[in-house]
Amino acid sequence: MAARSTDEALLARALGEAPPSDALSEQILDAAREQFMTFGLRRSTVDDVAKRAGVSRVTVYRRIGNKDGLVSACLLREYRRFVVEVDEAVAALPTTEDRIVEGFVAVLGHIREHPLVGGLLRLEPEIMLPFLTVESGPALVAMRGYVAGRLREARRAEGRPEADPAPVAELMVRITVSFLLNPVSCFELDDDEQLRAFARRYLVPLIAVA
């Protein structure tokens, strides 16, 4: 249980400040998630979310913020959830290489199939784009920090010299995000085996300099 708590604490630190976690804020984010999944971002307003949550518009603004704030908070909460799932799925694998490969497969697969994130990427990619690029700075930094932390732990466990893994971690995060935003590519990444082959050929070699 202590190891699990340590992992959750690491994830919380790596993914930035914790989102609002009181019952009312969670209620608003739950409503936002349902609203965005049902009607998309373009057709949803703060008033729609407030009505679905059973609160006033002012309460939404005070607790979470404007519409962009709602989208960001909602997405960040989903990121936290699936990163925990991915982390647990790869934790028992024997090597760093295996964890990188299976982590890449799990992240792409999870996001593509995710009812909120994947659905919005398919239906409203032009609206989702800012939340994964220009407005995703904190999320990108957080994910880079998380991956870098895992690479650093692997180096220590393997007795390798200390080095800054942040550049390699950022490359891994940016590569993954690029395939989510634009899956059209000369690489064949249609199934898990193709994703594994890509990760082993192009991502695993990066850890030699991490």
From TrEMBL:
Query: Which Pfam families does the protein's record reference?
Result: TetR_C_35 (PF18556), TetR_N (PF00440)
Q: Tell me where on the tree of life, at the top rank, the source sits.
A: Bacteria
- Ranges where the HTH tetR-type domain occurs: 22-82
Record's InterPro entries? AlkX_C, Homeodomain-like_sf, HTH-type_TetR-like_transc_reg, HTH_TetR
Give me the positions annotated for DNA binding.
Answer: 45-64
Keywords for this entry?
DNA-binding
Question: What's the protein here called?
Answer: TetR family transcriptional regulator
The signal sequence is none
Q: What is the lineage of its organism?
A: Bacteria, Bacillati, Actinomycetota, Actinomycetes, Kitasatosporales
